[in-house]
């Protein structure tokens, strides 16, 4: 540092334009910024992966298989409030990261794209780790007291005409459907057989299916049906929970 620059800095300190801060304050501020980044990152990873889970569990993620109407159903099913919160978290992370000189010297677009890519990729990893599936199953068994209500309303975002479940029984023109909520409905698909005569052969007991149709009470009039591999291990409770056998007595 040149003598001239040193004198200028000292002069600024004397007139109060520059204030010296103790070292522990810099350390504390850095710690708080790092803690905030970690907290926002974890929360955003959880939230984005939960959004993916809700779309998958409700069947909305597979709805585009029905064509343009299915794409519209997916769009309507998006949990916009959670998406907005996720965007806010990403913005918060960007503001916190810009505090550090490494990120401050780079264009804001670079760091923002990195944060978005990190959040998206991390959320996909969390989703594939079956974290939410495990928590969802615990919630259905009333073993998740705090986050249970969140998982028990996983399909509250989807439209009423989208139904996911597993076939219990099949007759010539209807079937019994069991949902992830462990409720059963009678699905009538007689009107589809004229257009899709091979449908009856495709509908087998135990198959997971996705239905677009109007529901009145426990009856669903199917407008379209497809057998889907939803890419998860979620099943109705009767498929998952088995009664414990009583101990043998002598």
Automatic annotation (TrEMBL):
It comes from the Bacteria. Keywords: Membrane, Transmembrane, Transmembrane helix. The keyword Transmembrane applies. The chain crosses the membrane at residues 30-53, 73-96, 108-126. It comes from Candidatus Harrisonbacteria bacterium CG10_big_fil_rev_8_21_14_0_10_45_28. This is Uncharacterized protein.
């Amino acid at each position: 540092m040149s003598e001239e620059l040193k004198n200028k800095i000292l002069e600024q300190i004397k007139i109060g334009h520059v204030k010296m801060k103790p070292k522990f304050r810099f350390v504390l501020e850095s710690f708080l910024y790092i803690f905030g980044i970690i907290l926002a990152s974890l929360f955003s990873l959880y939230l984005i992966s939960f959004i993916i889970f809700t779309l998958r569990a409700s069947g909305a993620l597979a709805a585009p298989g029905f064509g343009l109407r299915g794409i519209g159903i997916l769009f309507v099913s998006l949990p916009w409030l959670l998406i907005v919160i996720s965007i806010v978290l990403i913005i918060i992370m960007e503001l916190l990261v810009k505090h550090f000189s490494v990120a401050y010297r780079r264009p804001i677009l670079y760091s923002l794209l990195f944060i978005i890519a990190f959040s998206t990729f991390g959320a996909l990893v969390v989703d594939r780790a079956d974290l939410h599936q495990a928590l969802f199953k615990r919630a259905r068994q009333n073993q998740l007291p705090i986050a249970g209500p969140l998982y028990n309303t996983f399909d509250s975002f989807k439209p009423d005409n989208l139904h996911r479940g597993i076939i219990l029984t099949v007759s010539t023109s209807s079937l019994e459907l069991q949902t992830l909520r462990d409720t059963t409905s009678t699905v009538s698909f007689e009107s589809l057989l004229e257009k899709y005569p091979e449908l009856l052969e495709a509908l087998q007991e135990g198959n997971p299916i996705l239905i677009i149709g109007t529901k009145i009470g426990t009856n669903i009039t199917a407008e379209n049906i497809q057998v889907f591999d939803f890419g998860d291990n979620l099943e109705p409770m009767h498929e998952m929970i088995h009664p414990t056998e009583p101990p043998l007595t002598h």
